[in-house]
Specification:
The protein is of the alpha/beta class. It is 29% helix and 18% strand. β3, α2 and β4 form a beta-alpha-beta unit. α3 crosses α4. It is globular and about 40 Å long. The N terminus is likely disordered.
Length: 249
């Protein structure tokens, strides 16, 4: 499939706002909205939104921020710009402490500053990475939230440290060639965005954390014109790069 220019795609992007496909499982309530499970089709990519133990910073609901529209919109863009078999319903909530995590090699984590992982979650996190899984961490800012995220991952990988990434890393060029990692910075709290990663034993990125950023806001609100087009476009381009990298490394 030839690559479609994403900016043109976004201009003509028709947001799919149909009802969720659910089978009755609910994961609490965020504001006035119940968080319902989605039953995805059997596509090549399923985005796993991890639900994890929390410290209460966001009412133990930070894991659900921007769900499900961020997943629907990024999945739709992936389907339109790549040859990956995926559609807008290709996502589901997965309990980090369950064996289900190993069925979905691409995981999304929201608000890691609220992480307080159980022992089972720490063990599953360790095994998930060691088995070749990929984790995208998003939506956190400030030194306290960064420290919480880092300390929780140290429980699973005490021998590893997050490393800083710059624009030259292949992950930022795996599908689209990104030129500036701070295009989104003026529209999110925390100052300049930073990207840090944990490497697996092969030296590839297994965990990428978008610090002082919130990709899911841009994905979720693309139909509401809350942000200018360029940062929104870059958020989608970056997310697609992460998916392609995870599937090729």
């Amino acid at each position: 499939m030839p690559r479609i220019k994403l900016i043109a795609l976004l201009v003509g992007f028709s947001i799919l706002t149909g009802s969720l496909f659910v089978y009755g499982q609910r994961f609490g309530r965020f504001g006035r909205t119940y968080i319902d499970q989605n039953n995805p089709p059997a596509t090549e990519l399923i985005i796993a939104r991890w639900r994890f133990g929390g410290n209460g910073r966001f009412g133990n609901m930070g894991w659900s921020h921007n769900y499900p529209y961020s997943e629907q919109h990024i999945a739709q863009l992936i389907s339109e710009t790549t040859s990956v078999d995926v559609n807008f319903r290709s996502y589901r909530i997965v309990e980090l402490g369950s064996d289900d995590v190993f069925d979905y090699p691409f995981a999304y984590v929201s608000e890691p500053g609220e992480m307080a992982l159980t022992l089972d979650e720490v063990e599953n996190l360790r095994q998930f990475i060691n088995r070749g899984g990929f984790v995208l961490i998003d939506d956190f800012d400030g030194p306290d939230q960064f420290a919480t995220m880092r300390d929780q991952f140290r429980r699973a990988f005490p021998e590893k440290e997050f490393i800083s990434l710059n624009i030259g890393h292949p992950i930022f060029h795996s599908f689209f060639d990104l030129e500036d990692l701070n295009v989104m910075a003026p529209y999110v709290p925390g100052g300049n965005s930073a990207y840090v990663a944990l490497l697996n034993d092969k030296g590839d990125i297994a965990v990428i954390a978008c610090y002082n950023n919130d990709l899911a806001n841009f994905w979720d609100w693309i139909d509401e014109a809350r942000y200018p087009l360029r940062p929104s476009t870059e958020a989608f381009r970056m997310g697609i790069n992460f998916v392609v990298y995870s599937m090729t490394h």
